[in-house]
Every structure is written in structure tokens, then in C-alpha cells.
From TrEMBL:
Coiled coil feature spans: none
Pfam families tied to this protein: DUF1996
Species for this entry: Hymenoscyphus albidus
Domain of life: Eukaryota
InterPro entries with a match to the protein in the record: DUF1996
Protein name: DUF1996 domain-containing protein
Domain DUF1996: start-end pairs: 38-107, 110-198
Length: 255
């Protein structure tokens, strides 16, 4: 089971001794499924246009019938036992010289105007910081028009590409052989989705635990890797996700 690492950064409470914006959680999650489902972009659709790799709680499905995910999930593949959320990203595939594909095992706006949940263009209610480094670890300054710092979620996804090291299988022109499940071979189309599923105030309690950098924090219930890996869901889209294939699942190759 390949383990993914994710980093959750949130606004620091005023009484903490860390610089503002620096408090964060870091913990591992293993895959709960790899299939063509997306309850946010394509709710109810079995067999979405492209493949995703999913981690987190076992409530993940083509449709999630409740806004309180923690009430319908019974287990999670994440280190914190109370994090029943789901996190998913597009897969990466290796495109061989013969044209076949094989799956490779596996930063948004951070300032809000404080008033509008959405705008017609889905952009104007948020903005990027005006000062500070463009990362999740150091404090930054939001513009006066968007003074509220948004808790940030960073998905760090690591793929094991070692089985594709044989250059004889790479494209004859020497171009890089990896492609996202969306059909994008540039990498610019990578994206991630998130459904909140923390139980009760468990996330707040974890964030209040000054300097929590792993799954073992004093104010959150953690679970062993072996226990997390026992969390499973049945396949909804029945298709081969790991073998060699002539076309990408549900999606053509793009440029």
C-alpha cells in the first residue's frame, strides 16, 4: 500500500507562540480506492471522465448523501482516526513507446474577503497574498480587500516511477512519458478535491495542539498504519486500474 503525505495548515490562534499562519498538521493517508468517481464535480455519475486516486474515509462514493461525512463513514485510511474526510487527485500514467499506458503507483488562493461565499466568476471573493513566500509554511500578508486568511490544504502526492526506468520503453523522441488521468501530458491540469469529514471539534483540538507535525498529537486520536490500511470500500466502477491499457480509462490522450 503506497502512503501519501498531506499537510493541513490553518490560521494560528492568537495565544499560540508560533508565527501567525505557521501552525499545521502533517500526517499520512493510504489509498482507499482508485477509480472513476467524483462526487463533487460529477455527483451520481458512475464512470467519470477520468480516474482519481482517493484517500480517507469509507463514505466515498459516486454520491455522498450527507453534508456530515463523519456521521456516515466508519473508518479512515488516514493517521488521525477522527479524520473521515476524503482527499482525491488525478492519477499519473506512464505512456510507453508502443502507445500503451500504465498507472504510476502513487496552491490555491489563501485570502478571503470575509463576506461572499462565491461570486459569478468564482474568483473575486478570494485573492493571493500580497507579501510573503508562496508556500504553506511561512506567514504571509493578505490584501486589505481580502483580509481573512483561509485555512490551506496541501496534498503532497508521491509516485513510485522506478518500474518505468527502462529508457527503451520511453518515447523514441526522448520526450517525458508520463500523463495525467485527464489526458494531460503537461502536468498543468493536476488538481485535488476535498470533502470535510472531521468528527465534531477534533480538527480544532488538533490545531490547538501547538506544533503537531505527525499523526501522534496529544489532542487527537491516532491509529496505527496497519489499522488504517484495513479500511476498505467496494469498487463501484469495475475496470482494470493497474494493468497495461491501450487507452486511458474514460479519457483520450491530450496535449
Amino acid at each position: 500500500m503506497i502512503w501519501l503525505t498531506l499537510l493541513l495548515a490553518a490560521v494560528v490562534n492568537g495565544q499560540l507562540n508560533l508565527p501567525r499562519g505557521l501552525n499545521h498538521l502533517r500526517f499520512g493517508c493510504s489509498q482507499i480506492t482508485v477509480e472513476r468517481l467524483d462526487p463533487l464535480v460529477n455527483p451520481g455519475l458512475v464512470g467519470t471522465p477520468h480516474m482519481h486516486q482517493v484517500v480517507g474515509g469509507n463514505a466515498f462514493n459516486a454520491s455522498i448523501p450527507s453534508t456530515d461525512v463523519s456521521s456516515i463513514a466508519s473508518c479512515t485510511t488516514c493517521g488521525p482516526a477522527d479524520d473521515l474526510s476524503n482527499y482525491w487527485t488525478a492519477n499519473v500514467y506512464f505512456k510507453a513507446r508502443n502507445g500503451s499506458y500504465k498507472r504510476v503507483p502513487q496552491v490555491p488562493n489563501s485570502c478571503w474577503d470575509g463576506k461572499t461565499l462565491d461570486t459569478p466568476n468564482h474568483q473575486d471573493h478570494v485573492a493571493y497574498p500580497t507579501k510573503g513566500p508562496a508556500d504553506f509554511l511561512m506567514p504571509s500578508t493578505c490584501p486589505s480587500t481580502h483580509p481573512v486568511k483561509i485555512p490551506q490544504l496541501m496534498l503532497e502526492v508521491v509516485w513510485d516511477t522506478t518500474q518505468f526506468n527502462t529508457k527503451a520503453e520511453w518515447p523514441a523522441d526522448g520526450s517525458q512519458p508520463f500523463v495525467l488521468s485527464t489526458g494531460d501530458n503537461t502536468g498543468y491540469g493536476q488538481h485535488g478535491d476535498y470533502v470535510f469529514g472531521w468528527k465534531g471539534d477534533s480538527l480544532q483540538r488538533a490545531m490547538d495542539d501547538n506544533g503537531c507535525f505527525s499523526a501522534t498529537c496529544g489532542k487527537q486520536k491516532s491509529q496505527d498504519v496497519g489499522v488504517a490500511n484495513l479500511c476498505r470500500i467496494p469498487k463501484t466502477v469495475v475496470e482494470d486500474a493497474d494493468g497495461w491499457m491501450d487507452v486511458l480509462p474514460g479519457n483520450p490522450m491530450g496535449g
